[in-house]
Amino acid sequence: MLGLMLKETARLLSEGKVSAAELCAACVARARQVQQLNVFITETYDTAQKQAAESAQRHREGRRLHVLDGIPVTIKDAFSTAGVRTTCASRILRDYIPPYSATMVQRLVDRGAVSLGKTNMDEFAMGCGSVDSLFGPVRNPWRYNFTTTTTTTTNKHTRAIRDSSQDSKGKNMQMRTMHHHHVTSTEDSDWFITGGSSGGSAVAVATGICKAALGSDTGGSVRNPASYCGVVGLKPTYGLLSRHGLIPLVNSLDVPGIFTRCVDDAAIVLGALAGHDPWDSTTVPDAFHPFSLPEDIDVTHLHVGIPKEYHAPHLSEETLHTWREVADMFEDAGAKVSQVSLPHTPYSIVCYSVLCAAEVASNMARYDGLEFGHRGSDESSTEALYAQTRHEGFNDVVRGRILAGNYFLLKRHYDHYFIQAQRIRRLIADDFKTVFDSGVDILLTPTTLSPAWPYSWFVKADNRTRTEQEDVFTQPVNLAGIPAVNVPVALSEAGLPIGLQLIGPSFQERTLLAAAKWVEQQVNFPHLQLPEP
Length: 533
Prior knowledge:
This protein is an alpha/beta fold.
């Protein structure tokens, strides 16, 4: 049952052929089987088993709350979860326990979903490899050697996993020390990155630990790991999903995202999560009407655009070949396929870097050690306490972006950097609008430059360099606020997933996902298969 899609699993649950408790137990067993991948920061297995038992009772009594009732899910550790620590993979929030849950988390709970835990990520979602986490890097399950041994450590980096039975004041905590995965040698780093920053959630879905997972997408942090891990990753239109309780990276770009193994499942989860939230003024007030996708999809009336600017330097031959093949599939099926231009794309990564750093500088100001989170010991002055707390609490990546952001926001630099970046952002958004207004329904592009990179190669360059390389196809979508989805399409010669990105106009998720499902049907992607735990 671990290899089944969400929709098929929900049917088995409703027919009584499998119970939510049995499903939860199987998923927990799988999570323990692949523990070396370092998927979780905090596991909530005990609470999940209780939730599953309650779901099983509802199913027996014919009181199913939703199609998600009893379905195992995981949550990126950037979403607040009441009574369960939320760290953003950072020392400064290592022991932070929110008193409330993010709207996206609460909507899953209200629909009966079973949460297995909080997934690993890049610190404060700043990264594209899920390697810059206080709790160690997440490892890609594709071509991973599960015979490698890990050792339990007891130093300051050891991970203490707290179960969700704890209360908001931290009393009666159930502590379990887990394996922490140090990368100490070339041999130990001979594995592939997951992409980021939502790498833990992508791996959880890819390995069958859960049927769906929450991530967040600021510049590609859902689509990038979805591509590397061979799963569907949906970034909805900005304002369609609530950001309330999602610890912010860049408020004007952040979007909650969805990981599933197939497009139908992404549509199901979107229907459960979308809609206005009074706690988030950026959500659209219009009611969202959930939809299901047909099995027979007609693409003859579809106009597919191929942006010429996305023929980027360093695009791998295998990715380029896959991109061309799928474009040909659309054309052979009767769709209109034409080259289009998004002329300001070359400026987007610089624009994104400036705006990201500026908003990071503002958002990170709240972490001063006074009200919550890590607190330094130097109380000689307020300034000394602030400085020590933030130096100890943030990694080099976060501190670097804070410094850059404050530089861009200085009065003498504000117009030259921040305002200019906002102007370019508008031009980028207008590029997309012009193309869609011309009659193009969707855009087809690569998601990443290549299949997943080996960890040992990836860490030879710094976070900023890698982010500028890996986000080249994904971050313009966030600047424009439009929806996009990664669809796994093929395996490389090395046996690693290659994904393609479909981009649509604002609030046209139905058309976007229908086209994505059509691609999915044509390519019949071979999902990762692991032995039963």
